[in-house]
Design brief:
Two copies of one chain form a homodimer. By secondary structure, chain A is an alpha/beta fold. The first copy, chain A, is built from 18 helices and 26 strands. The first copy, chain A, has three domains: 328 residues, Rossmann fold (3-Layer(aba) Sandwich); 66 residues, Luciferase, domain 3 (Roll); 109 residues, ANL, C-terminal domain (GMP Synthetase, Chain A, domain 3, 2-Layer Sandwich), CATH 3.30.300.30. In chain A, 33% of the residues lie in helices and 25% in strands. In chain A, a hairpin with a 2-residue loop joins β22 and β23. The radius of gyration of chain A is 23 Å and the shape is globular. Chain A starts with 7 loop residues before the first helix and ends in a 9-residue tail after the last helix. The interface between A and B is large, with 61 and 61 residues. Chains A, B: This is Long-chain fatty acid--CoA ligase. Chains A, B: One of its GO terms (molecular function) is ligase activity. Chains A, B: Belongs to the ATP-dependent AMP-binding enzyme family.
Chain lengths: 552, 552
């Protein structure tokens, strides 16, 4: 067979020809959209690629981006890797010191940033990012006043490029992109994605029984493009020729909802909290929203609650689906689709199945390993460390000593604890560091959270481990009430219907909001930190609502 | 990223776990079926693999099969490549001398055959197939009396193997299978398929906007498993966990129809003639058939006529789809799905689009090259040689001098002549050797055939080039009438509605059947050969119906 490498530009070659008239649409304001075709897109990608070469960017160089989800950012997704350089998407929500660490660790040579990020990047320059030798600012009109230097306008660069630039052919294992984990302990760890990994992952996601990403879809990418290649969704949309909708600068819940209605969006993906916030927005809104076009809502980062699945299904006929992934896996590991032989079961059983992390996607091998290092059976109850192996799983962290802790014997130790059921659906019980070990028995914080979030008077809930003199660790629940009548006793009794007595949290603290990480997951480390400073009282002082007053 | 190779056994690993309860069903008699699960299948595959190793089969050895579509043959699909050996599927419909050539050229070390093939293989032994050192016979009960030696019962071998055998990991470019072209000129040419190519092709076919192969499908594989990996359909079904239905030994049209009704088959694939014969069977049957479960019928080998597309759609709601492929491409090159922006056009225009060969599948690059070697525009009218390039396209023929004629500059010259429209749909005009060049202008035999086959009184039609004193070549039509009232003048007038006068065939010969190749394509070479022996008279003598009498 021909030695044709799996390169991102091979996908682009096909899409710009076959789906030349399909659109990429970016929200630019309330009810306002920028729209152009994949043919226009590909020309600008080629211009960008050739301009970067002229600009002195070399194969292997890291090009950083600090940007929202919009068409220019998407141009860098194919333009930068197209010349063999590495797209380093930087998390916009990190503190400047963390961003500085990332840029210096990756040794980014150029930064491509959004206009509203100029003040942040000026701060980064003061902190010291010596590898960066130029700044390219995306946006319309002239570049705003800035101390950044040398500074260039992104569109000027694109205009100076050549739209008939031909991409070079190189080894498919060449680095295409990199992303750092949103590690809540220690410095973030860098993961380098190869062209091969990204092409294979996009192919898997484009398969039946996955995302439902076909050519006719109009797909809204809510998940940030700075995080794990935007879950590889933009690549999958391009591969399939689907209409890609990007929410632009500073989108709010209202913007997602309005965009879906305006553009008849058929599918979207984002953090679980997005699905919750959109629901709350729609509920509180003083007008009806027609979101009937929305067939699929993929919620990730953590498992969506039964309540949120049911609300979307009952209100708009939207099928809420989940997967399971992480930065180290490009990112998808599992995707939850219901096997036809299981779909015939009762509604409750099917919903219980949909609450699981899903089955491994093709090419992905998984196992659960016990304390003695032996593989555990796929019985749905044997809980152990969750290990994975695939052509799109990281072999190492980028120049990082911590590789040897996580990559062992050709497998990646995810750091999650879980079980696998007899049909290969994974059940993630906890991050191993979030496990609660009470009196020698362990308690799943995720199981308790899911149960709490299914309570009609609960808006958000998280359960963390706190130290205990006798049992060593005990669960503590932080709950955002949705109704002011909610009481601690009510929750305790409710949980007792499904859990053993010793699983029930000792305290239920009513808070205004659960602290979240930069990618929208519950920040249990922060809650444990606050607790360490002063127990329940400190939590209530910092994030408490005092009484169970509903949050507007 | 991890260096995890794309191996067939990686697909099996997942399917036997995730889709363990899904079925592989083989027709064994009228209304009788053998059925077992993918879990059973995988155990037998592992047994077969380990038994072959014990039997002395080594990595790289060619293992030949001469067999129908059934579960045992499918076991060899993963069992043989699983140990790094090469599955050589031999065309059952070739003459013994051709089969002998294939076996000797491939140097098959073992032959795995169906029981009904024993007389043929005994003949092959007499002709001389010295590389074969053992014969393994599939079937039930004891091996029938035979001169083959040493001879083994397939099921005994499987029983002696180990069901917990672990497949080795090796380079993804390792040969997995091989197949010879059904070349109508000269000796067949061998194509060797790598694991990588077959995994990638299965992933492409499993994508949305392709075959419609999802887990819930019940797929009937009519295309022979000896030809081009059965179009890679069995691999795709396994990858997706779909129910795979195999028509077993000596299936007839009636068997396909009954199997679809019995098992509520949802999709099938086979040669265009299968779709025609099934229609004719249903029409002539004295009872109603409920084929309403059949959503998708993929007809290949050549383009299905508009008439056959419409009949299935109107009668059973079955969507007839076509692709375009060849042995050298694992085999798919294009697949015809209608882009949403084109689906809005009128019914006639959409049917015209469905008559085209389709768009290139992912990872496949295509071009049309003019006489001067330059690439022609994708305008739907510029006709030239059709070239392709992909990771599942052959780089060479197996130990064959003719490689240098077909593989040039990293591209494969398909030998087809065609155009590409502005949306990337290919329009195959002819095999270059079937082109009719009349008075310096070329005539597409395929365009004429398609038009003729859309005539309600025509059952089959083919158009070939015959020598002509003045114009050098002229078209000749061989037509199988469906109605005895059909006349030559009627066809001539009908064609004049759509074609220039000089395109109209000089003769329309009514025949009982169009001769076909071993894979069901119209055998134009044979018709040209008969014509060379005695012109129209010889054709009418050999295959003519005399008057336009309908064929029962």
């Amino acid at each position: 067979m021909m030695d044709q490498p799996l390169l991102l530009n091979t996908l682009l070659w096909r899409t710009e020809r076959l789906f030349h008239d399909k659109k990429i649409v970016t929200r630019t304001g309330p009810g306002e959209y920028h729209s152009y075709t994949y043919a226009d897109y590909a020309k600008r990608v080629r211009r960008l690629a050739s301009a970067l070469l002229d600009f002195g960017v070399k194969p292997g160089d890291r090009v950083g981006t600090i940007a929202w989800n919009h068409y220019r950012h998407f141009e860098t997704y194919f333009g930068v890797p197209g010349i063999g350089a590495v797209l380093h998407t930087i998390n916009m929500r990190l503190f400047p010191e963390q961003q500085q660490y990332l840029i210096n660790h990756a040794q980014d040579s150029v930064l491509i940033i959004d206009e509203d990020q100029i003040p942040v990047v000026e701060q980064l320059v003061e902190l010291g990012i010596p590898s960066v030798r130029a700044f390219i600012v995306m946006g319309d009109g002239p570049v705003p006043e800035t101390t950044l230097s040398p500074v260039h306008r992104y569109d000027d660069l694109v205009a100076a490029g050549h739209e008939d630039y031909e991409f070079p052919v190189f080894d498919e294992n060449t680095a295409a992109a990199m992303c750092y984990t949103s590690a809540t302990t220690g410095d973030p760890k860098g993961v380098v994605y190869s062209h091969r990994a990204m092409v294979l992952q996009a192919m898997c996601l484009a398969m039946h029984d996955k995302l439902n990403m076909s050519e006719r879809q109009v797909w809204l990418e809510v998940a940030p493009m700075f995080h794990c290649n935007g879950w590889n969704i933009p690549h999958t949309a391009l591969l399939q020729g689907a209409t890609l909708v990007l929410p632009g600068i500073h989108p709010l819940d209202a913007d997602y909802v309005r965009t879906i209605e305006d553009l008849r969006v058929t599918g979207m993906n984002g953090a679980v909290t997005i699905g919750t916030m959109m629901r709350d927005f729609v509920r509180a809104s003083d007008r009806e929203w027609d979101l009937s076009s929305l067939e699929t809502m993929w919620l990730g980062g953590q498992a969506p609650s039964l309540a949120i699945m049911q609300w979307w299904e009952q209100t708009y006929g939207t099928y809420v689906v989940q997967g399971y992934g992480m930065t180290e896996c490009t990112p998808q590991i599992c995707f939850n689709s219901i096997k036809s032989t299981l779909a015939e079961r009762g509604e409750d059983e099917v919903y219980a199945l949909r609450q699981k992390g899903g089955q491994p996607i093709p090419l992905m091998k998984i196992k659960v390993v016990g304390e003695d290092g032996a593989e555990l059976p796929w019985d749905g109850t044997s809980v152990g460390d969750f290990w994975v192996q695939s052509p799109f799983t990281a072999r190492e962290y980028f120049e990082d000593e911590r590789t040897k802790e996580s990559m062992v014997g050709g497998w990646f130790r995810t750091g999650d604890v879980g079980a696998i059921d007899p049909d290969g659906y994974v059940i993630i019980k906890d991050r191993s560091k979030d496990l609660i070990k009470s009196g020698g028995e362990w308690i799943s914080s995720i199981d308790l959270e899911n149960a709490l979030m299914a309570h009609p008077k609960v808006r958000e809930a998280t359960v963390v481990s706190v130290p205990h003199e006798k049992w060593l660790e005990r669960p503590l629940a932080c709950v955002v009430p949705a109704d002011e009548s909610l009481t601690e006793d009510e929750l305790r009794e409710y949980l007792l219907q499904g859990f053993a007595k010793w699983w029930i949290p000792d305290s239920f603290l009513f808070v205004t909001e659960v602290p979240k990480t930069s990618v929208g997951k519950y920040n249990k480390k922060e809650i444990r930190g606050i607790y360490a400073q002063g127990g329940n009282a400190e939590i209530l002082r910092r994030i408490g609502v005092g009484s169970a007053k509903p949050v507007a």
